[in-house]
Amino acid sequence: MPDLEQEAAESRQHGGPVRFFMRFTREQRYMHAVLFTTFLGLAATGLPIRFSESIWARGLAKGVGGFGAILFFHKFFALVLTVAFLIHVKEVFTRGVVNREKGVFWGPNSMVANWKDAKDLFGHLRWFVGLGPKPKFDRYAYWEKFDYWAVFWGMIVIGFSGYAMWFAPFFAHFLPGWALNAVLVIHSEEGLLAILFIFSIHFVNTHLRPDSFPMDMVVFTGVESEEEFAHKRPLEYERLKREGRLDARLGEAPQTWLVNFSRVVGTVAIVIGLTLLVLTLTAYFS
Amino acid sequence: MSGARNFFRSDRTSELDAWAEVCNTEAGDGRRRLVPEKEDGRMGEAAGTRLLELASRATAMMRSGVLVAGVGAALLFGAGRLNAQADCLACHGDATMQDGNGHSIAVDGKTFGDSIHGSLQCTDCHTNIKEYPHPEQVTKVECKTCHADEAQGLSGSVHADSKEHPCTSCHGNAHTIFPKADSRSAVYPLNVPKTCGNCHGTEGMAKKHGLASVYPLYVDSIHGFALSKEGLLVAANCQSCHGSHHILSHTNPESPTYKANIPKTCGSCHAKINDDYSHGAHGKAVAAGNMKAPVCTDCHTAHAILQPTESAFRMQSTPICGSCHTDKLSTYRDTFHSQLGSLGGYVETARCWDCHGAHEILPASDPRSPINKANLVATCGKCHAGANLSFVQYQPHANAHDRKLNPALYFVRLFMNILLAGTLTFFVIHTLLWLIRARYNQIKKKSTDGGKDA
User: What residues of B are in contact with residue A175 (Cβ under 8 Å)?
Assistant: First the structure.
């Protein structure tokens, strides 16, 4: 998000205080924090194992706490992430299936992809090359849904293959022999895909692109300014306005300490991620 | 000078006085007296040196036939004959005694007396020194006169052309040689490495003679450790493997360190292992003359031999096997065993010999082989508690690029590769285009705002 204070100053020039709207709940923000913390941990402890022949692998393994520790931490982060994943699945299940809450599995507030996402993708691509207008996005744009499902699928695939290696003799009871070989290939390739995707595509799409540079604070503070809301998600903004439900989403301006804290945390995460990305690429192409 | 020393023993004084008389008579040409007037039985060092100097001149004169009556009288007296050690030690017992070139010619009578040669007379070895004054040319001591077998062995060895004295280089000062069972001996088992290391442990010598500096490798090895830290007399020292006098180059087929002979050499102590080895694939190949197959030293190295359970050895062992079994190494590298194992400290992951055995390596078809199908549960179970028949279907050398050998794995890998490459390719293009377009719009927008930050 562009500098908050600068934006606020600009807004004051135009008259009227800056209004902030809720996008993520506290639980969702915590979930993201757990997700990126464990993900960084898993990447930092997984990459040295994946590229154990690289010159930096041993150093990184040592930095993590020694060779014996690296697998311990990898498993530890995996367990924490597994718990977070299960909590999320349970919540979605409770909301969508038990409470029959509307809009969990379909509609503009759902993470489930729909026909509009396909049209948005092509519309967006056309806009990139100047062949059409910029599509108007709703609450979750197609790349955000992709991020969500990539992580969802990734956690199932990486998690399953990881546990299959961890408890190989147990999994051997119902997996064919070749699958024990395959799980390592699946685990490392899918893990690599996740690392490369998050540290390059997700970082740029969500945080580093000009509209959000240097990082989108909404996932840390939970709120975004009216201007940003209207600019990034015009369909949702207009719909809420039309239905008179905009005020229900009003939030408080983020406190300075939270903004600063989030900037530090976000920057550290991005720096770690980019460092791991560079190491991965050097190992991959050497 | 650090003081006059006791040069004469009181009981020898008269005899030497007689000699001084002889010399003075010989040199009676107006030069100063060879031996100054006795002062409390002491003599200055300068005077001592002069004594030697003039003694040799006197000898020369005697040789030239200028015999004076006094000399004959003295010889009849028996004063010049050197028989007992005591005769020699009278002079050579002085610890600071040197010859004209400044080399020590002192002998510690006490130590020599204790040494293995202590019962011999000096003249038994220094054969042409029969009397005093000594001949100008002193013949070299020939150890082989008595030690013929050793000399013969040495003559054909790598040390045969040594410029140093071949015997004393190892056995130490000729007058302090002890039996090899004596801890004072330079060739006592616990002292051998240090003795050999005098030459084979320094960079200088190593460079000069193109020798590997093996001593530092040995001292840190399991043999060196057993020897130096535990004082194990049976621990292999240099000569256990190389022999002592008849040391031959490892390229010589007769050498105990020649490749084909190494199993026998190591087996002289490690009999059981040698027996296992000889029944294994490597041992059989070597016995059949296939010299590409490894012997003990190919895996364990020759000098820096490590305890096989040590992490350093576990780290180095796999590449050694892999230097021949390259295809197996490459497929092993793809496994978790290798990935975690090559990070160093975590050495418990399986190395080649954890599964294949170390010495009695047998083909999988052999029912005694640990990788025989019937034994896999036990072999894998050494690390993987709960290993069962379906677990051991795992292939530790599967090749994900070999469609015929591992079709399922091949397609799994192919799918994952395509997924990875496809996803990333699409999104890299997508995101790069987006970046360019967004930045373009931003600049355009800001330039209309007055060009700020454009």
Answer: 390
The C-alpha atoms of residue B12 and residue B86 are separated, in whole angstroms, by: 10
Residue B410 contacts residue B400 (beta carbons within 8 Å):
yes
Beta strands (DSSP E) in A118-248 are 223-225
Q: List CB contacts (< 8 A) between A164 and chain B.
A: none
Q: Does A69 touch chain B (CB under 8 A)?
A: no
Q: Which of A1, A52, A121, A187 to mutate to test the interface with B (most CBs of B within 10 A)?
A: A52
Q: What is d(CA A69, CA B421) in angstroms, rounded to the nearest whole number?
A: 32
pTM, rounded to two decimals: 0.74
**For tokens 């030069």, what's the residue?**
B31
Q: How far is B413 from chain A (nearest CA, A)?
A: 6
A224 in reach of chain B (CB within 8 A): no
Q: Which of B334, B384, B408 sits opposite A178 (nearest CB)?
A: B408
Selecting from B339, B398, B434 the residue whose C-beta is nearest the C-beta of A128 gives: B434
DSSP one-letter string for B34-54:
SSPPPBTTBB-HHHHHHHHHH
Sheet with A223-225: strands ordered across: A223-225, A20-22, A250-251
What tens-digit pLDDT sequence spans chain B (454 residues)? 333 333 333 344 444 444 444 444 444 443 333 333 333 434 444 444 444 454 454 444 444 443 333 344 344 444 455 567 788 888 888 888 888 888 888 898 888 988 999 888 888 888 888 887 888 888 888 888 899 998 888 888 888 876 666 788 888 888 889 998 999 999 999 999 998 888 888 777 777 777 778 898 999 899 999 999 999 999 999 999 999 899 998 999 999 999 999 999 999 999 999 999 999 999 999 999 999 999 999 999 899 998 888 888 888 888 899 999 999 999 999 898 988 887 766 667 899 999 999 999 999 999 999 999 999 999 999 999 889 898 999 999 999 999 999 999 999 999 999 999 999 999 999 999 999 999 898 888 877 754 443 3
Contact at CB, A204 and B442, closer than 8 angstroms: no
* SS3 call for B29: coil
Residues of A in contact with B333 (CB under 8 A): 53
Residue in chain A lying closest to B412 (CA): A182
Which of A168, A205, A210 shows the shortest C-beta gap to B442? Answer: A210
Tell me, yes or no, if B139 comes closer than 8 A to chain A by beta carbon: no
Q: What is the DSSP letter of A254?
A: P
Question: Which are the contacts of B448, defined by CB distance < 8 A and separation ≥ 6?
Answer: none
Which of A128, A254, A127, A149 lies closest to A194 in space, CA to CA? Answer: A149
Predicted local confidence at residue B83, as pLDDT: 61
Distance (Å, whole) CA A230 – CA A239? 11
Lowest mean per-residue pLDDT among A6-10, A189-193, B286-290: A6-10
ipTM given for this complex: 0.90
Tell me, yes or no, if B414 comes closer than 8 A to chain A by beta carbon.
Answer: no
C-alpha span between B286 and B294 (Å, rounded): 7
Q: In B301-341, which ranges are continuous DSSP H helix? A: 311-322, 326-333, 336-341
Q: Where are the domains of chain B?
A: 10-141, 248-305, 306-395, 398-454
B142 to B20, B151, B169: CA distances (angstroms): 32, 10, 14
Q: Across the interface, do A193 and B420 touch by the CB < 8 Å criterion?
A: yes
Find out whether the peptide bond into B133 is cis, omega within 30 degrees of 0: yes
Show residues of chain A in contact with B338, CB under 8 Å.
52
Give the Cα separation of B42 and B158 in Å (integer).
50
